[in-house]
Amino acid sequence: MAAKKLLILPGDGIGVEVIGQARRIIDWLEKKRGISFEISEGLLGGIAYDKTGTPFPKDTLDKAMEADAVLLGAVGGPQWDNLPFDKKPERGLLGIRKEMGLFANLRPAVVFEELADASSLKSDLVAGLDIMIVRELTGGMYFGEPRGVETLPDGSRRGFNTMVYTTEEIRRIGKVAFEIARERGKRVCSVDKANVLECTLLWREEMTKLRDEEYPDVELTHMLVDNAAMQLVRFPKQFDVMVTENTFGDILSDCASMLTGSLGMLPSASWGAPDARGVRRALYEPSHGSAPDIAGKDMANPIATILSLSMCLRYSFGLTKEADMIDGAIKAVLKGGLRTADIMQPGKARVSTSVMGESIIRELDKLA
Ligand code: IPM
Ligand code: MG
Hints:
Number of strands: 14
Radius of gyration: 21 Å
Largest sheet: 10 strands, mixed
Distance between the termini: 20 Å
Bound molecules: 3-isopropylmalic acid, magnesium ion
Shape: globular
CATH superfamily of the largest domain: Isopropylmalate Dehydrogenase
Number of domains: 2
Number of helices: 12
Structural class: alpha/beta
Strand content: 15-25%
Order of helices and strands: EHEHHEHEHEEEHEHEHEHEEHHEEH
CATH class of the largest domain: Alpha Beta
């Protein structure tokens, strides 16, 4: 088996620590499962700006294009807040999404049985929750032109962005959502603002057409985004797969992740189109941010990142067995009562980032 080429981008803040634990799992897979990785490392975000003057160096782009997959920690921190817009760490993240053509962002919101009490909602509303949010990631207002801030003749200023989608952009994200739904509950809820925004009326029409033409076996419903936000906190278990445009997806996925009470537990995947070999460009990262307030304290929860690695093994490397082992080891550790600070519950044992990593490896040893 050819070595799996993985580019690792630790990024900023707790990104470095949580990636450290994922690397231990990778070492374990090499030693105990005989899987060979070809690991490279690169700079992205604030650290990249500090070392090279740009949050997204060319070297990182080149490495990403050569890799079979990318594993990212997190980017950002207050020390970079006052940089010009194009130098901010977030531009690095948006840049790599755009350059790799990662148009589909998969954000599962899953409640772990052991953590159902940790939600801000009543536990019966969220127990067993399993939603997949499919967010369009390279279009809409995030990238639409024209954009900017201009000064008007009277000296006042005008800021503007453009929400724009083409048929092709809508269909390709729709396909990802319908394909995923086929592997799950076969229900897609497409979220838009078709009563106000023409762009998303087009979205609704194209989603309907695509379903009728290619996915008659999948149930499609439409929901306005304001209602979707409300329904997510009212009765979240009504959803299976939600598909939506970039900005709505940014907002709804944060909302959905909080329902689980465990942002530190949620992985994500960003996919591009399959290349000539049929391999999708892909980047995997935890759903949480760089958490500067706890960075460097060995406190962060590494589970979202380790689950992101598991998604990478499953979807990019075809290593289903190993992905299942990692998911199982994490469940076992939670069952055993170990908790990082973010998911701490009465009567459980609070552990550090590194002890959580070690404990997952111990469970892996048992499963191997
Ligand atoms: C996310 C983040 C990013 C986004 C920021 C950091 C640019 O909020 O991945 O959801 O808005 O997409
Ligand atoms: Mg966000």
